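ok here's the first one, seq then struct tokens
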Amino acid sequence: MDFDELKESISDLTREKPFLFAFIGIIVFLFIAGLVILMIQTTPVKKTEMQAPEPFTQDSPILTPDSLDIEKEYYPTRIPENQWSKEDINTWFTYPEEETMAELEKANDKTVEGIIGAAP
């Protein structure tokens, strides 16, 4: 039986018995779909092991992204010193002006008076 004879017999089947041809087509389709589903369901699932993240410590280095927004001298966190060095004092500390201290004293007195009120 060659290809032409097979093609002619299928053509005769579709003309003479279209319902039988449709039924055989549906059966073949369901058989192939069942094979595909069976192959998918029986493939073993690869188990991936979850690795616990490393615990965070205060001394862990901070990974900052390379960006133009973050300056090289910027430190998101640091281990604080107990005391300022003389260099830090000269760089960062500014002595308050007398006017500012007087305003702060008045504000503190007003707050204390509001808390105490007319207490004996």
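and now the second one, same deal
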Amino acid sequence: MKILKIFAVLLLFSAVMSCNNDDNGQIEYSGDNVVAFGDPAPSERTVFVFEGTEFNEIEIPFGFVRPLSDDTDVTISIDSENSEAVEGIDFSIVASTVTANAGETKGAFLVRFFENVATESGKKVVFNISADKVETAVFNNSYTINVSSSCVIESFVGQFTSQTWWYDPATFVGEIAVGSNPNTLEIVDFFPDNVDSPNFKLRYNPNTFVVSFQQQSTGAIAAAGEIFVKQADGKISRFNPCTRIMTLQVEYFVPGTSASSGDQVETFTGI
């Protein structure tokens, strides 16, 4: 029998944090200009290469903390010691050095990942960044891409086991099914206390398999009120249709109160 975790635990996570760096609450930077990956893309991402496409060309963004005073050459390089994918075989960089003009604050490199060598299990490549007229930032100075071939959604759905915060004991065994609308999935009976809508309903991007979902009720009632689930702020949920692994970044909470689980991870693995 599935037993829900006691929601009183959530009250332990309801501390509020704040930070004010000046009278307007803004963080000010007064150091030298620097270059870093992202604008504001994450410094790690998953790329899929689809059958019949030959390659998938993506942008890897970079940016500066303030507008450039001079034209600046920015170079992307490969951390071969920590990479599995090989340049010239698994991928190619269209131009390893690009020029950012004076006054600009951002730019991008183009990288192509090839279909004929992409694998379902995936390979990792780590990139570094540098520039000729500004220093490299101490943050976002590497960019990791996990590249793999893509499988059809029908290969992903089916029976799953999971390590989940919501259940106690923590293992949930159940089904993930294709939803009634395009590019949707449903975790069947994940919220059995919600009699009218027990399925955890998800939407996904068919190109990146990034998952999103609307706030929805679990149907469970705690002393503070009805428990809902929503996406964890600033966190990315995704799945790999080939490896059949899905990671959801969630927060359980009672609307209008401070009761919250904080950010939690629900991981589902196909069986």
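notes on #2: DSSP finds one helix and 20 strands in the chain. Residues 63 and 106 are 4 Å apart (CA to CA).
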